[in-house]
Amino acid sequence: MVVDVVLPVDPDSQDFRVQVLDRRGKALPFLSSETDQGSVLPTRIWFTGRYEVVGHVELQTRPYVWKTFKGVVFDK
Question: What are the residue boundaries of the structural domains of the chain, listed by start?
Fold first, then answer.
């Protein structure tokens, strides 16, 4: 199954995911995505499963919360 999407998401300030749920509310497994050249957001997303079992598609977004950590040492 393929979901064509137009994402109203600002990738600089929001995280997102597209989730497909069957009629019982169980998430269908993500398979793959395709992003147009020059874009940072996917335009087509594939999920495993038959179209007939789809209950609904959700676009879930959340704002990024940036944190600063001072004095952190990274060991090589």
Answer: 2-71
Q: Which has the closest alpha carbon to 49: 9, 70, 25, 22?
A: 22
Closest CA relative to residue 46, chosen from 18, 8, 9, 15: 18
DSSP H/E element including 62 = strand 54-63
Give the three-state DSSP class for 30. Answer: strand
User: Alpha-carbon distance 76 to 63, whole Å?
Assistant: 32
What residue has token string 């598609």? 57
Q: Which residues pair with 70 in a beta bridge?
A: none
Of the chain, the percentage scoring pLDDT greater than 70 comes to 88
pTM: 0.65
Asked whether the beta carbons of 5 and 45 are under 8 A apart, the reply is: yes
